[in-house]
Amino acid sequence: MSQPSRCLKSLNSFALNANAQEIVTLSNLVQLEQFAQQLPKQFYILGGGSNSLFINDYQGTVVCPDFKGINVANTEDAYLLEVASGENWHDLVHYCLANNMPGLENLALIPGNCGAAPIQNIGAYGIEFANVCDYVKWFDFATGKVEILSKGECDFDYRNSIFKGSLKNKGIVIAVGIKLNKQWQPLLNYAGLNELGSSPTPKQVFEQVVAIRQAKLPDPKHLPNAGSFFKNPVISQELFENIKLQYPKLISYPLTNGDVKLAAGWLIQECDLKGKTIGGAAVHKLQALVLVNIDNASGSDVVALAKFVQRTVFKKFGVNLEPEVRIIASSGEILLENI
């Protein structure tokens, strides 16, 4: 299970130089049970590494779930998939299309593994994981047993779930259950997708999403990054109206509870922060929502840049940006405001 190398650089998409005391890869239930019986005092569960920022050497065990497998069942009205947590998410989207099971195409090219999908409640272009979730298969450290949590039990919210709350560090996601309706309908409400006409094919939607993302999001293999660094902020209707008066081009999305979600990338862009650098870290020149490692950045560089972006946006708009990326210090996950 343990790996001789303790270097995390190749295991996180920001490619920051950081080490762990130990790295453990789990690929089957027997290994997981053994790990749970001798649970380390301090550990961090790392999937595809696309949403974790290691700002220091981690003084604990990094656990890499590597469970594999996709099983498909049919009902009269849906395709039912059980997907192991170590499967790559984008590969799953491609697999579903190749096997005539549409429904995930709006979530194409989201980096990371399937086990992170329920934890983060990943989403893009009008769809969240919660929309297709049937259940989550979960190994509980305390009981040593596999449990199945229904969609309702997962407490999904915007980029949030029970796995980031009361179940944090209490176990590991080993598989996700996905339900795809056979009566497929395209979701085309976002800019770029609404250019496809009224009846595009699933493949056309997939290709358009991939084209949009590739045009504005840098490939971590060529320019290390963690995708969207900040969440889109949700504000009150009152604050929204005040900002809208000053900035009529404000990009916003009304929510059913009366609040309004803003486009964080637009806010950062309006602060003229594209290309802003601190040390080896930079705000991407094309997509302001992405922070990139352009020149062997340190964790301190990225943190300083993120805090600078936060302060600048708040000063201009009165809106606080929260990181979507999980920030890992020597003793574990930490909030940006506590650094």
Describe the overall structure.
- With 339 residues, the protein is an alpha+beta fold.
- The protein contains seven helices and 21 strands.
- The protein has helices spanning 29-37, 89-98, 116-120, 202-216, 237-246, 264-270, 299-317; strands at 2-3, 20-26, 43-45, 52-54, 58-65, 70-74, 78-84, 123-124, 127-128, 133-140, 145-150, 171-181, 225-228, 234-235, 252-254, 260-262, 277-278, 281-283, 290-293, 326-329, 332-333.
- A five-stranded antiparallel sheet has the order 6-7-12-10-11. A four-stranded mixed sheet has the order 1-2-5-3, with helices on one face.
- Strand 18 (281-283) and strand 19 (290-293) form a beta hairpin.
- The radius of gyration is 20 Å and the shape is globular.
- The mean pLDDT is 95.
Describe the structure concisely:
The chain has helices at residues 29-37, 89-98, 116-120, 202-216, 237-246, 264-270, 299-317, and strands at 2-3, 20-26, 43-45, 52-54, 58-65, 70-74, 78-84, 123-124, 127-128, 133-140, 145-150, 171-181, 225-228, 234-235, 252-254, 260-262, 277-278, 281-283, 290-293, 326-329, 332-333. With 339 residues, the chain is of the alpha+beta class. The two termini are 33 Å apart.
Helices, strands, pairings?
Blueprint: E1 2-3, E2 20-26, H1 29-37, E3 43-45, E4 52-54, E5 58-65, E6 70-74, E7 78-84, H2 89-98, H3 116-120, E8 123-124, E9 127-128, E10 133-140, E11 145-150, E12 171-181, H4 202-216, E13 225-228, E14 234-235, H5 237-246, E15 252-254, E16 260-262, H6 264-270, E17 277-278, E18 281-283, E19 290-293, H7 299-317, E20 326-329, E21 332-333
Parallel strand pairs: 2-5, 3-5, 4-20
Antiparallel strand pairs: 1-2, 6-7, 7-12, 8-9, 10-11, 10-12, 13-19, 14-16, 15-16, 17-18, 18-19, 20-21
